[in-house]
Amino acid sequence: MNVACVQSAIDKRENSLIAARQQYDADVVAAIAVRRDARKAAWDLDTVAKRNAAIDQAMNAFRKSHDQADAKFMSAVKVGSKQFGADMKACKAAPAANEASI
Questions:
Q1: Spacing of C-alpha 26 from chain mean position
Q2: Taking the domains of the chain in order of start, what are their residue ranges?
Q3: pTM (2 decimals)?
Q4: What is the structure's pLDDT at 67?
């Protein structure tokens, strides 16, 4: 087992998780900002029905964006974990039992 190789694999995995989380946070913040602006604009509409429809549309768009951010994050986590397993195999080391998942 090559300790430097294992440490490099850990760096690679953890850095990929950090990047994925930062992207997730940016995506969610962007979705909240879009929702905020759409909800504010809804209050400029002249009827309750139009306003409620616009607010519903804003909330549905937010949920869709949030769900997409979730899926993108989980995909990145899965890819990072799979790569970590391959890297550890290349290092001729098995991940510790408590290190197998995030």
A1: 9
A2: 3-21+33-93
A3: 0.84
A4: 98
